[in-house]
UniProtKB/TrEMBL annotation:
Chain ranges of the Cytosolic endo-beta-N-acetylglucosaminidase C-terminal domain: 567-687
InterPro entries: ENGase, ENGase_C, TIM_ENGase
N-terminal signal peptide: 1-23
Name of the featured protein: mannosyl-glycoprotein endo-beta-N-acetylglucosaminidase
Organism: Brassica napus (Rape)
Family: Belongs to the glycosyl hydrolase 85 family.
EC number: 3.2.1.96
Enzyme class: hydrolase
């Protein structure tokens, strides 16, 4: 009989995480010993797992320099409590052993890193790796929460080392409860939503009662500390203590299922197992997540480009599905390129499973279509940086673009293209193709469920295009009488094209972008769909019945006009520089490293921000006079990066010999897409000259 494919077996090829770099010089014949990673020392913020029970028990993670940077800042959408009572989709991330580009909390320079942007197709996201306690990097939690998706970490024991770990973990009922509480503390402290528990080693049968205590106590502790949280058991060890994957819900694993929120079934199930499991689960059948290995190793239907075969069966069986390692597309370099292959693969999931997330459900709605990676960073059409970057936390609300594999010469190609210009961030939606005379093309962007009140709302979007490529918005509403009403937002000179559907708008130009703005009152209506509308001019002759089309959509914003929240002035903030280190370099230059922290002097409930741009202004004059901060970034070296907590670590910033002081500026972002003006943003001044003759200094300004 075929051996079941467990997490341990199917992931044996994965790379292990290395937090240090080993180096060798030309003259050396042996590898130099790697410097040890000390999480208490200031360094570039990183996400890392907890590898021992001792570290888990001691709470040492909370004392690490990196802990404050690893807290997620985006709360789960407020109306997300218990999961809906329907078939659900769980996605288990598994990418080269975990903690690759995503481990760099403030981002890195690999804009070809792995990302997911199809959040509207899933309910739960699990971050998986092979360390004892796998803590999700905050970038995944931030962007998943933004889309209404819950995020779980992983607790795993495996092989002989895992058996020894379980012996200690389950030594007594009290120890089992203590370790469960430590896991709950981590989830609550870092802001994610629960745990996948994967015990892939033999357990002494006398310790099975304590294993049940561990699972049940963790479930209760999670529910108490994080409402709506989940603990999911993986189908591995049985109630007899043997490591025997069942591939279905039965008497060997149901006792664990009964004391937590769900079970993730192994992948080698047979065609009748989903329905049999549903019968045993009864009214909890949607808490049964049947595993599908996307790599296809022993999985029903073969995975890979046939993963939809298993999804179709699970949907018809009315149980839930768990997709393991959708990064297969990325890791195996599926043609023709990663973005196209990724969109094509997830289109199979949508066809089988359907859309499960409707967002947003409350104002404001804002998206600049940023996928969390790009080749530049822009702000209101002005380029801040043209360096490649990767930071999934920066991913904005993702559009529900439909994949079209038709003939490129006959269809409009609609993609997010990070190589093209951006209005904000590093994303856009690119429309390229041809249009026939008097024809138009619509593209689905969002399917919200926005119930509108008696207040006016403001709608805006930005476009960059040639003169003959027009781009509008098509808004669809459900009326109080459940009828459908559509409005087209477009430049005024095209009013005659749309008749009663036309919504007039104003235009203003920012850099090379045109921003269209309109106000409307739709009391009692529900906004149910937002589409892009591509069209051309009216002057095409009959013999010239097609024309090329090219346009970029930079952002969409819908917000209440009643917004009264203002950015706190600079005087309302306290900004500090800690752990300052200045190291001499060549020709009088120096490198500056420090931890910037900021807080409101009198925080208010409505003054919670989840994103900041950080700038450095290098000052040559030692006689610094009080004046306005940069009115605008004058060069790309001013822009350092983006923070998603109230701290940012400046790492090895080079300053020239003439620089006497550095002023760090913190620019606040609001969820409606607006940014605080730079000349009213808080800042802190750090002297860069006072220690130029010494090796370094660590301290507080």
């Amino acid at each position: 009989s075929q051996k079941p494919f467990s997490f341990s077996v199917i992931s044996s090829k994965l790379l292990s995480l290395s937090l240090v770099v080993m180096s060798i010089s030309k003259d050396e014949t042996m590898l130099a010993p790697p410097p040890s990673f000390d999480p208490t020392k200031p360094s570039r913020p990183i996400s890392f797992p907890i590898k021992t029970l001792q570290d888990l028990a001691s709470r040492s993670y909370f004392d690490s320099f990196h802990f404050p940077f690893n807290r997620s800042s985006v709360p789960l959408r407020q109306n997300i409590g218990s999961l809906p009572d329907r078939s659900r989709l769980l996605v288990c991330h598994d990418m080269k052993g975990g903690y690759v580009d995503d481990k760099w909390v403030q981002g890195c320079g690999n804009n070809k890193g792995f990302a997911i942007w199809n959040w509207y197709l899933m309910d739960v996201f699990v971050y998986f790796a092979h360390s004892l306690v796998t803590l999700p990097p905050p970038c995944w939690t931030n962007t998943a929460h933004r889309h209404g998706v819950k995020v779980l970490g992983t607790f795993i024991t495996e092989w002989d080392e895992g058996k020894a770990t379980c012996k200690e973990l389950l030594a007594t009922k009290e120890s089992a409860q203590m370790y469960a509480e430590r896991l709950a503390e981590l989830a609550a402290g870092l802001g994610f939503d629960g745990w996948l528990i994967n015990i892939e080693n033999v357990i002494d049968q006398v310790q099975i009662p304590n294993l049940k205590t561990f699972v049940s106590h963790l479930t209760k502790a999670m529910h108490s500390s994080v409402p709506g949280s989940l603990v999911i058991w993986y189908d591995s060890v049985t109630v007899k203590g043997s490591l025997a994957w069942q591939d279905q819900l039965n008497e060997m694993n149901k006792p664990f299922f009964d004391i937590c929120d769900g079970i993730f079934m192994n992948y080698t199930w047979k065609e009748n197992y989903p329905k049999e499991s549903a019968k045993i689960a009864g009214d909890r059948k949607h808490d049964v997540y049947m595993g599908i290995d996307v790599f296809g190793r022993g999985t029903f239907g073969g995975g890979q480009w046939k993963a939809n075969v298993a999804l179709d069966l699970l949907k018809s069986s009315d149980v839930s599905a768990a997709l393991f390692a959708p990064g297969w597309v990325y890791e195996t370099d599926q043609p023709p390129d990663y973005h196209t292959a990724q969109n094509k693969w997830w289109s199979l999931v949508e066809k089988s499973w359907g859309i499960v997330q409707t967002y947003p459900q409350s104002l404001p709605l804002y998206s600049d279509f940023n996928q969390g990676l790009g080749s530049h960073v822009s702000l209101q059409g002005q380029k801040l940086s043209d360096a490649p970057w990767y930071n999934i936390s920066c991913q904005s609300l993702q559009p529900l673009l439909e994949f079209n594999e038709g003939n490129k010469s006959e269809t409009m190609q609609v993609t997010v293209d990070g190589r093209e210009a951006s209005y904000n961030g590093g994303g856009n939606i690119s429309f390229k193709g041809t249009l026939k005379r008097n024809a138009h093309h619509t593209t689905r962007l969002f399917k919200p469920n926005l119930q509108l009140s008696g207040s006016h709302i403001s709608v805006s979007y930005s476009v960059k295009s040639d003169e003959r490529s027009m781009l509008g918005l098509l808004l669809r509403f459900s009326t109080p009488s459940q009828e459908t009403k559509s409005l087209v937002m477009a430049p005024n000179e095209y009013m005659h094209r749309f008749g009663d559907m036309f919504l007039p708008c104003l235009r203003r130009t920012t850099s090379d972008w045109t921003v269209h703005e309109a106000n409307l009152l739709m009391d009692g209506h529900t906004l149910t769909e937002i589409s892009a509308l591509c069209y051309g001019p009216d002057d095409l002759a009959e013999e010239t019945n097609t024309q090329g089309y090219s346009a970029l959509l930079g952002h969409i914003s819908i917000k209440s006009q009643q917004k009264t929240k203002l950015f706190p002035p600079a005087s309302a903030w306290v900004v500090e520089a800690h752990n300052i280190e200045i190291v001499p370099g060549d020709s009088g230059s120096r490198t500056v490293s420090c931890k910037l922290q900021w807080r409101l002097k009198h925080p208010e409930e409505d003054s919670v921000f989840t994103r900041y741009n950080v700038y450095a202004e290098k000052l040559n004059s030692s006689d610094y006079k009080s004046r306005k901060v940069m009115e605008e970034p004058r060069s790309e070296e001013n822009f350092l990066g983006t923070a998603h907590v109230d701290a940012y670590y400046v790492s090895d910033m080079v300053v020239g010999p003439d620089v006497k002081k550095v002023r760090f500026v913190i620019q606040t972002w609001d969820e409606d897409g607006s940014w605080q003006e730079l000349d009213t943003s808080p800042s802190v001044l750090v002297e860069a000259e006072r220690l130029s003759s010494k090796l370094c200094c660590c301290g507080l300004i």
